[in-house]
Amino acid sequence: MPTLKPIRQVAHFLLLALLVGLGVNTAIAGQGIAQYGKPKYPDGFAHFDYVNPNAPRGGTLVLPNPGQRTSFDKFNPFTLRGITAPGIDLMFESLAEGSADEVSSIYGLLADDIQVAKDHKSVTFHIRSEAKFSDGSPVLAADVKYSFDTLMSGKAHPRYKTTFADIKEAVVLSERSIRFDFKNDNAELPILAGTFPVFSRNWGKRPDGSMIPFEKLAFEAPIASGPYLIESFKAGKSIVYKKNPNYWADQLSKPLNVRVGFYNFDRVLYKLYSDDAVRLEAFKAGEFDALVEYRAKIWAKGYVGSKFDKGILLKKAFLNHNGAGMQGFAMNVRRPIFKDVRVREALGYALDFEWLNRQIFFDQYSRINSYFTNSDLSANFDGPRKPTEAELKLLKPLKAKYPQWVPDAVFGPMPAAPSTKPPGSLRQNLKKARELLMHAGWQYRDGALRNEKGEPFRFEIVEDGGFFLRVISAYVRNLEKLGVQVDIRTSDFALHQKRMNEYDFDMTTVRFQDSQNPGNELWDRFGSQAAKEKGSDNVIGVQSPVVDALIDEITKAQNREQLRTATRALDRVLWNSYYVVPQWYNPTHRVAFRHEMRYPEPPLYYSAELWIMQNWWKEESK
Q1: pTM of the shown model
Q2: What DSSP string runs through 33-83?
Q3: Which CATH superfamily, name and number, covers 326-445+507-585?
């Protein structure tokens, strides 16, 4: 079974912005800036350490559908409605590029100079004179401002407005200089300003000079500065990207350091398959080059056969140091049935992780016990300890001001997720669940768990496809022992995404994006305002003044210690509010690939799909 990918598809430039962070020290100018101290790489560095600078270029990389999408109906990745074509991120770039072997540095891409103001209230970028869009026009400050203003408007997905909310405005200083002014001293803002996607003001311009409204752009090819162009596509079935022969970074007199070892293929072809079983058989038949597997059983039993025996096809688990974040069954607390925290806690006791790991997962997973699992930002990273004095300085005033929003349990050791390891058992866990439900007003009678009005405890679990049904079925069997009635509904990716955007669900599986340096994205994930906006990452519906206050502390952190303190305090509050029934994680990426595929040593923090697309190459048969 899988460690799920996020339910929100975020373009890779934004993903990198959230994986790394940026703070400011004194006024600094140069190609790279870091959050704490100096960036790893000095100005003029040759290339990132985790790439092969001599990787051969050429050939075609053929990939299957990433995630669960089985079709697409647009090229514009920035709007709420519709399903974006896979790989469209290959066409877009940003002012700066994150490093995958650091927690908190960025380096100029479209920009050749970055300067953070002494008062920390603005950052200025100078755009390279060589930077050009795919139509040959120069990338200018006016285009950068247009891109930012468009993403902040009601025309784009609301997540951008939430994520960039603390950036006051973009100010054009000259043809190739732009300054971003900030509303407050937020250490992450310079990186957000540097890593949002840039596109041309002419994207969507008709021959007569009129403009197609941004929110209505569908199959109009983006005009952006990235290394690839759309060569051809079959609506909803496949898409081919070809390397732009006039890609600006390949025309420089000296190789651009942040692009050395990147994008080694002449073409990238995505084929979309109808389901996971078809995709696996297609891989065995040689229809594409590599895929990332998220299901433990298939990894253990499906990647076998003569081609694996002969070494034509290979499989390998690559270690990563990504924070595992949170994956679990998320409850929509907008629903009355999940309002009571005792109910939410009770439902967690019905998931028997140890049985699932033994019977279904081939013991490949570890239990999630934090919203920041596998990271020093977790409140239980070094064991189930009580809050530190620094954490208490944040939590005690919030408890005094908002007592109902700070569970008493946050002041003790972080409790582990329910376990059935001896001397524990599922029977004991279900007894605890029954007691919690009884105190919340739910008792078993007349063949069901009912409230005082006689209404049965009933809800629906929705998923995008049937690959998770074995896990859900096992969970539901245990819930039924409590008298809980559960309906299971599966749908295709497009319909499921629409339901998520509308928050039209009771319970679903979520995976919150891993981050080594969390910041403004937490507003979209857990902020009260985001809970009211359709399409946000706050599918749970968290609307807590305490959570808002702690996110504010995280975004204001000026050093790693402050960030760790605030993040651990937030972890304690979220964990003890029982919004999610935690599941599991795997500290490796499981990748299967053809024997001619080659790769460098992986970086510390990376997405497997992006790593393959950006840094792998192919050794052609002789």
Answers
A1: 0.84
A2: EESSS--SSPTT--S-TTS-TT----SEEEEE-STT-----BS-TTSSSS-
A3: Dipeptide-binding Protein; Domain 3 (3.10.105.10)
